[in-house]
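Slide 14.
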Amino acid sequence: MELRQILMTMETDRLEPSHIKQLLLYAPDGEEVQRFQSYKENPGKLSEPDQFVLQMLSVPEYKIRLRSLHFKTTLQEKTEEIKASYECICKASLELKSSKKLAKILEFVLAMGNYLNNGQPKTGKTTGFKINFLTELNTTKTVDGKSTFLHILAKSLSQHFPELLGFAKDLPTVPLAAKVNQRTLTADLKDLHTTVSDIQVACHNMPATAEDRFAISFLESAQPAMRSLDDLQHKAMEEFGKVLSFFGEDSKMTTSESFFGIFAEFMSKFERALTDVQVGESQRSPRMTSPLAW
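Slide 15: predicted structure.
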């Protein structure tokens, strides 16, 4: 039977993943297996579906082979998805650490906060701030309540340091990294490892035969892919740990999506505030525009 041959040789190009999934879905349960194994009469008396099941049960570890075959046919797609997510985290971490424009803007945020709070007796100058403050700049009012920190920042940079306005171009991967769920990513990789481990155990328990290439075929495809993912995960989380430390964040309390989400949100809100400022400036007469005093 062709399917039996496929399961023995692990030739994945002859079955679609959807077909394998259907075979798994309708694979016989424990009671059905016992019933078929105790059947001693002529197989020709059985219906075609029952004959099919009987033939499949002649293949050692029929279910684990189907599961392995499905895993093998979808392994590349799964590994590419996980690989892309970890590469995204790694690249976004490097972008944030290396952007001189962002560093300068953060200096401005700190200086602006100290300047605008100057004169309040109980408030001394600070030397840093938690990065989640960046998402609050559009709702944080100045002392006189007439403007927000974000609009003042956009206006000040526009007037005095326009070369910093395009800082988002230094961080193209950050908004993408904000969409990567770190816990889901970790769970997905763990699931792959669990599946590989289960199949490896089954491989060791199967008697080796000349026609049976199950163990060899599976391990040839799975082991290099898993090693590559493990290496990439280590590299990505190492870079993520470095960027967390760089910005003074707690690695035990901060997920990648929340961390990168803060910067992605700041970038988006800054662009809107800059547009507001530019629209406001264009509607005023140049003679009525006064420079922002610090």
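Speaker note: Confidence is low (pLDDT under 50) at residues 119-123, 288-294.
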